[in-house]
Structure formats: C-alpha cells, structure tokens
Amino acid sequence: MTRVAVVRFPGSNCETESLLAVTRAGGHATLVDYRDTDLGQSDAVILPGGFSYGDYLRSGAIARFAPVMTAVKTLADAGGAVIGICNGFQILCEAHLLPGALQHNAQQRFAARPVDVRIERTDSVCTTDYEPGEVIRIPIAHGEGRYVADEATLDALERDNKVLLRYVTVPGTDMPYNPNGSMRDIAGICNSTGTVVGFMPHPERLAEQELGSDAGQRFFTSLMRRVASGVAA
Amino acid sequence: MTAIAMAEPFPGERAVTDDVVREHKLNATEYTAILTLLGRTPTLTELGIFSALWSEHCSYKHTKPVLRRFPVDGPQVVQGPGENAGVLRLPDGWAVAFKIESHNHPSAVEPYQGAATGVGGILRDVFTMGARPVAVLNSLRLGPLDDARNRYLFAGIVKGVGDYGNCMGIPTLGGDVCFSPCYTGNPLVNAMAVGVLRESDLITARAHGVGNILLAVGASTGRDGIHGASFASEDLTSESQKRRPQVQVGDPFTEKLLLEASLELITGGYIVAIQDMGAAGLTSSSAEMAARGGVGVEVDTSKVPTREAGMTPYEIMLSESQERMLVVAEPHRIEEIQRVCRKWELDATAIGLVTDDGIFRIVHDGRVVAAIPGQELVDGCPMYSPPAEESATAKARRSLTPSLKGPEPVAALERLLDAPTIASKRWVFEQYDGTVRANSVIPPGSDAGVLRVAGTDFGIAMTVDCNARHVLLDPYEGGKGAVAEAARNIACTGARPLGVTDCLNFGNPEKSDIFFQFTEACRGIGDACRAFGTPVTGGNVSLYNQSPMGPIDPTPTVGMVGLLADVNKTVPSHFQYNGDAILLLGETRGHLGGSAYWAEVLDTVGGAPPSIDLAAERALQDVLVEAAERCLLTSAHDLSDGGLAVALAECCIGGPWDIVTMGAEVDLGRHADSVSDEGWLFGEDGARALVSCSPTYVVEVQRLAHAHGIQCHYLGLVGEDGSDVIIRRDGRAWQWPVARLRAIYLDAIPRRMAAVTTADGGS
User: Per the CATH hierarchy, to which homologous superfamily does domain A3-229 belong?
Assistant: First the structure.
C-alpha cells in the first residue's frame, strides 16, 4: 500500500481532509510532526494547507526552516512525490523546491471561492487520472496566492511544460476567472519530472459526491497509481 | 464597620477617592454596597475588580430579571445558560455547543482587531466546553455604504472576522449583514461559534477541590484591553476613539495552538475545569469559576507571566490580552499538563489555588492586595428594574404610511435587489473560508448553513437572523419574528430547529423607551421559543449601543441550530431543475407595514410589522421538515425581506458561484383576492416559504401542507437556464431577464465598495 506522510505544522489546518482524501484513494496516510526529522518509509509527502506558523510575516517563510523540511528535500531530490497544497505550495516556493513566489492577492483581500482550472499536464504524480486539458472546478481559500516570477522563469516554466494548473474562464461565470492576479494565470506548477508539485486550489476539499462534487479526488487516485507503479522513489 | 478580610494597597497605587470611584463607572448605590460588603474602603485593585464584574457586560444588572423569563429547558438540553456556551444533544452520544457574542464597541473604534478578537473570544467559549469548533457565523450591522467611514468600518470588520477564522481553519458557514443609518457610528459585530463534542467529554467552568491548582495557559498577559468590559458598558461618544488602546489584539495562530492544547487537556482527563479569560480577563474567569463551585481562590499575580516588567496586580487582573485560558487541576497533574502544553508550544504556569474560605484573594509578592467575599463579588451587584415605557414617537411610527407612490413593480424589484441589506453578500463571504475541513454541505449564501458531522449520518443547520426594523416598529412582534425567521431558515434546509442563542443589542437601558424595547423583544423571543420548543441556551447582552446620533434600532440577533437527521436529504435554497413546479406555502395577506419595500423603495420606516402566528410558523416548519424527509422538494427558500418577488428572484439567481441561473414563470392571478399587487409581490407576512418540486410531487406536497393546515398555492414552473423571470396577475405581467437580476444582486455591494477609503488611517 502506498504510504503518504502528511506534515502537520503548528498552524496547518487542512491535514484532516488531506489524510482522508489519501485514505479514500486507497493509500495509507500518517501525520508527521514538523519537528520530526525523517518521514519514515513514506513514498510521498503532502504539505497541507493552513497557516504554518500564523504566517504573519510571509506565508511559508518560517516553515521552510522546520526540522522536517530537510527530510522533505531529501525525498524530493531522490525523485519522491512531494505535493504542496496552498500553504504547502507557498512553503515549497520558500524552500526553493519550486521556482517563483506567492504574493498577496492582487485585490488585497482573502479569496475563498471555487475556481475553474485546466489540467495542463497529465503526467505529474497527481494528475494522471485527468484528461489532458480537462477543466475542473475546485475551491481556493487564500490571501497570498498571486503567483509571480520573473519573465525568464515564466518563459522557462511554459517551455519546459512545468505549468500544472491554469485558471480559465468558463461560460456563464460572473467572477474574475483569475482570482488573485497570478501571472500567466498560473494556479500550480511542478518540477521537470512532475514529482514535486505545488498548487493553490484545494482538491482535497471537493472529493466526495456527498459535498456536491468529487472533482478533486483524482489528484489522490493519480498519486496512488503513480507511486504504486514505481515512477517516484 | 468590621472588615471581613483585610487587604492592603499595592505600593504606589492611587488612593480610592470619590473621583477614582466615578472613573470606575460605579455609582453611589454600588459603591455603598461595596463598602458594606467589605466593611472597609476597597484598595484600588479591588475597586478595579468590582468595576469589571459589576459592569453591565459582566453583571447583567439591568437585564437579569428579564432574561430569567426565557424558556431554558427541554429534553435536548445538556447545558443551559450560565456556562461558557449552551450544549444540546444530538444523536449517538454527540452534542452541539454553540454561543453568540457581541464585540460592538471595540469594532466601532478599531474595526479589524475588534472584529477579529470577537471571533477569537467566541471560539474559546465553545472549546472550553470540550467541543471542537466546526463553524462560525456572524451578524454584522453597519451604516450605509455611501459614507466613507462606514465603508472603512465594513472592510475592516469583514477582514478581521475573516482573517481570524481563516487562520484557525474553521469555516464560516453563514451570517447576515444589514445596513441602516442607525448603525452609523455604532456598528454591530455579533459572532457565533458552533462546536461538536461527545456528550461524555463535556466539561464545565466550575472550580472545585480545595488545594487544586489554578494555571494560566496560553499567551502572556499584557497591558491591552484593560477595562474592556466597562468600555462595553457605556455609550459611544466622540471621546471613544481614545479607547483604541483598550481594544485587544488578536493572534489566531496562538489561539489555534490553545484550541488543540485545551481539547487534549479536556479529553485526556487532565483537568478539573477550564475557562477562557475573556471580558474582564483573569478577574472574571477566576471569580466566576470559584463562585460556580462555591469555593474561594487565591491568585498570586506576581506569578502570572507578563509581557512587560512592572505590571501591577491591578493591570494583571484587568488585562484582556487574548488567547489565554485559566485551568483548574489537581496538583499531581501539573507536570502532565505542562507536557501537553509544551507539545503545542504553550506555557502553563501555576498562579494560584482553590481555597475553602470563599474569599477571592489576590496576592502579589506575598502581600494581599485584594480580598473579597467571592459569591457576593459575582452575584452581589445591585440589580435595576428601570421603567419601561414606549415612547410617543415609537407609537406614532406604527401608523405612518408612505407618502410616495411606488414605481412600477419591475423597477421596484430591481431597487430591492440593489439594496445592500437584501443584495448578495458574496463580497463578504468570499473573504471567509467556507469549505475548510471539507464538511460544509451548504456553505454561505443560502437560508442556513449546513454542516455534516464526520462519521455520522446527520448534519447541523445553523443561522443568525433579526429584522431590526420590525423590532423597532413593534418590539414584541419583532422579537417573535426574529426567532420565526431563524426557524424558517433552518426548516427550509430540512432540519428540525433545536435551540437558540441570542445576542441582544440595544441602546441605553436607563432610558425608559429603550428598556421597553428590551423587555418586549425578550418577551417575543421567549414566546416564540416556547411555541417552537427551542430553548434559549445562553447568549450575550450588549447595551449602550448609542452614539451621539442616537440609539441603534433594537437588534436582538437570534442564532439557531437545527438537526438534519439525514444530511444527504439536505434541501438547497435555489431552484435546481427546468420544469419543476413552484409552490408557495403559507397565507399571503399582503402585509406591507414595516416592509423592506416601504423602507428601501418608498423611503418610509413605518407601519406595524406583520404579527407572527406562532402556530402557523410551527406548522410550516413541520411541513418543510417532513417534505424533506420524504425527499419531495428540490428547493425551499423562506420569504422575508422583500417578500415573494425577492424570494422568487433569489431562487432564480441561484447561489453565489452558480453558472446556471433559472428562469421562472408564475401566475398569481388564479388566487383571486383583495390583496394589492404590491402586497402580493413585496408584502412580508410570516409563515411562508417558496418551494420547488418535481411536477409529479405537487399533489403530495399539497396534501402534506393541508394536513398541517398550511395553504399551498401552485404558482407556476421553473424556466430554463438564462431565461426570464415572469410574474403574471390578472392580465398584468412583469418580466425580467434573470441575468439582469443576477447582475444587480451580485454587484450591489462591490459597486459601493469600489471606493474603499481608509478614513481613519486603518487597514
């Protein structure tokens, strides 16, 4: 069974639904404390959403120094699956495991709403169960989700196919389709092998029909399939 | 006089003179009572303690006799009023803890922190019962958005509410936001928290066990918020801005740690009692826990961890620094408690002990600086029964009628949908995380929020409501109406109303017309709660809500929770399917007095509001709950502000983020009667709901309604996506493209907020 570590920083608050999403997908999920220095026998690690250390300074700025991050980096370097959701994405950028940064939303207000995102790449560790170009609607909830990078980095992301999710507009919607002013409408990115991924939306929150949609659940079934097939470390 | 217990002034503190007594907002009667109780002149520390606990906020000195008339019992009640939160029984050993509280005065002078700490305080009230907070709701009242300061307050309050709950990871599931000139200068911020617990884990704030230890857990104590409780007990004036330093500063990250540590301490059985250091801080928490347990306490303020050196016992006892808990535990548990707290990176410091002499004693560096009989300190404040009489102005208001002639219904409905009180609050709740924890079945934007309880079949529906205009015009009927509207909102989701928490926001009770509003509104709330079998389990009273511009409209906000036996049978508010039948439940008499139509379109706040038929309301709730259980309905929405036309428009417009908007075609003409067009479209008679169902169920729904004595009118059909909303009556027809209605409804608040200004140098 695929073993997934879900790291709990003191201010994490999405760890429970992340654990459940993994369990529903057939994986074995365990909570790992931010003070731990190894991830046990985990095949994959999820850095869940929340406010790791209150994030009064800058989201993820302190979390990157947490003891557990050394083990996360080791797993990433070994080709293991590392997934950062929302605050987890912010932490991966702060830790330079992914390029760019997440700034305050352009409108300077917290944004909690559904967004429509297109799956730009289906060979990452958590998107294999989606169709190329498929558009799904899942929630966001963040104050600092505006993806920024310099032009060269953005061009390189596009060229190397490292944009994982992109905000798109769908007919009938009356919301700004890009909820935070992210450059190039980027909602999520990955490394070149698709094993280290980070994105702002929360697929784990909309992964059961009982809540109206299971659009996000395939992130977790994809992860199980990819890890089981040995592509990751 | 003989002193009961001796205390000496702390070195350097001021002598207690008449001026100092006045500064502490204690009147001559109260000060005489203190002298009699102590048998000597109080020390300054003692005077500060009395001023906090005998403030209106803590003592309820004007309101207790009235509040005692609320129904508080029922088979579902686990914990009624008097604790940090009320608790009601759910199936399978589960229980729900919930409470609402105001943070009006702080928010008037420092909107961001005032609102944020309001959320923090109410969350602590819930988790000190042993419940994990699962949702927050809020009721916000502000002056009109054409005023720059009102926009500044609104933006700051919403951001404050949002940032705190978002960081804690607790979804905001609902709320109401209303705008009226009466709240300019005195906004209302009422926050409600809902928590879930195993009934067996319930813990109360009752100190017992002589020799047990008092521990301060969480943040250290600073000089912020001193005298917050007494600030909350006076009118807001032009001087109130100087109170900004008395507004506490919130730290939701520490609160999150405190939440986890507290729940671990409670469920692990490590502690005897726990209470939040909220209003009046260490003073109220220690004095109230001791009085409830019938014991004394001794607190050594020199042991309390402080943020700065040199804090006096007076400051330490009266600080309202946030994110602090007072815990009572057996001495041999201290190390385990400190271990749990360390895990959450918090301090737990022994600062006192439970004693057997009933005295509330404060020592500092070995010197007794306060010694007060504990029970009398908490219960001994003189009570007041001010005269209650309705003013002539208020009576005259009930016979007012509009002098204007109304516009055509097409324009009138558009005006109503553009009124910020009625319009979509998407701008507000897109700043609140409504989906964290992945249990939100109905997030904000509907009649009531619905949350599933993980691992069970059932769900909890929750709402906050109050039509303050109705309360202003007729406090008794308005009070009934607030409970009835909340219950209708709950029942529309298919849930059975369970119980109430109330936040009673009024002006200065020493004025007879205000006290009349208070007593009558409470009588209305009590009668409605009795009729619905929904006991009042606690709440909060906020008085002195008046600025130099006058008192606020009486605003008794009702928070209600309900039980959905099968959460998979939750009924949404909005139309779902093209071709569904639209039915109106309840009787339409066309009552326009006190209506939003008169207020928003015809500029008249007047007339008598509709009288609430409690039996009909109860019957309507039964119909809605039974119809949901039998899966007959595809949507249900209550009729309130703006009547049938607004409800129909909202059902078509859909949820805040819906892509699909439904048309509708209804005909009121088949119901020949003497009601005017305006009365049909915009009247606000109670006990009504607009429902939709598959055409094959129409007869079933009608049969069910009639069995309960509720009228059921077939109005027409839901139309297709993006079509028109058409209302016909006797050859007349009014028609709107649904896209136009949605645009008006959604844009009303963002359009006005586009020019957010920082009128006061704030956030």
Answer: Class I glutamine amidotransferase (GATase) domain (3.40.50.880)
